[in-house]
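Regression test case RT-17, inverse folding.

Input:
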């Protein structure tokens, strides 16, 4: 966990350390592309499984960075932005399924 004023070298992007109303922007981040075993899974099952894993990774990262939320979350597979509240890009094949998300770790006021 970072101490106040300390910058994490894994953080990228702009707006780090700024405040927007009751939201403190801590880190703009893109975790690596996550992949999962797709053997014996339908494309939909493989994509759901790997998307859930990616979202859990964002949650873990938010907590490690001192945040309690991820805002502006959107699909970023193969560097293609898809800002849709109900859809995300996923590449599902016979053996592997993969997704990537991009978002901003933030601390929301209680």
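Golden output:
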């Amino acid at each position: 966990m970072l101490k106040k004023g300390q910058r994490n070298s894994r953080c990228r992007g702009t707006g780090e350390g700024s405040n927007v109303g009751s939201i403190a922007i801590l880190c703009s981040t893109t975790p690596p592309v996550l992949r999962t075993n797709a053997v014996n899974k339908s494309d939909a099952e493989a994509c759901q499984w790997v998307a859930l894993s990616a979202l859990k990774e964002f949650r873990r990262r938010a907590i490690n960075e001192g945040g309690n939320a991820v805002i502006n979350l959107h699909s970023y597979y193969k560097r293609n932005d898809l800002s849709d509240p109900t859809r995300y890009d996923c590449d599902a094949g016979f053996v592997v399924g993969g997704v990537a998300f991009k978002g901003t770790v933030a601390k929301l006021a209680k």
